[in-house]
Amino acid sequence: MARYRPPDAPASKFITPTGAERLRSELEHLWKVLRPQVTAAVAAAAAQGDRSENAEYTYGKRQLREIDRRVRFLRKRLEGMVIVEQRPSDTSRVFFGAWVRIEDDTGAERLLRIVGPDEFDRKADFISMDSPLGRALMRKAVADEVSVELPGGTRTFVVLEITYGEHPVK
User: Fold this and answer.
1) Which residue range forms the structural domain that includes residue 72?
2) Per-residue pLDDT of the chain (170 residues; tens, 9 = 90+)
3) How far apart are CA 95 and CA 165, in angstroms?
4) 113 located within any domain
């Protein structure tokens, strides 16, 4: 049996100004603060002698690889980002950056923001525009219904409100 798996679809390149700033500050922290600290710790551990049985050296090298991997990812990702600063011309429909109040088939309401894949956060109710619900909500208007296939079955949602800008009051 072959192990081939088709590559994942590329993630959307859209990001809000706040999300872009968060990624830039993470990159700066990793490169200018964390990496020099770990490099100094690895150098100190290497100076102790036998590296083959030196846990601090081995762990430090692993940390450096993880930091470098994340730095490469952030640099590449930020390079192609499109920072969306303006509202869409049609604010009566759901587009990137919209706050959307929806009601599910049980009557429960949720307030979600449609953001890029690099800034989704369940705690802040940010969902990716690439997620099944995010894709289903795109270009919908108030009172439109959307059905989404979820692991637990199909769920239906109704769009109650669409706003742009700052976080609306719940």
Assistant:
1) 18-83
2) 578 877 676 678 899 998 999 999 999 999 999 999 999 999 998 888 777 778 888 899 999 999 999 999 999 999 989 999 888 999 999 999 999 999 998 999 999 999 999 888 878 889 999 999 999 999 999 999 999 998 888 999 999 999 998 777 65
3) 12
4) yes
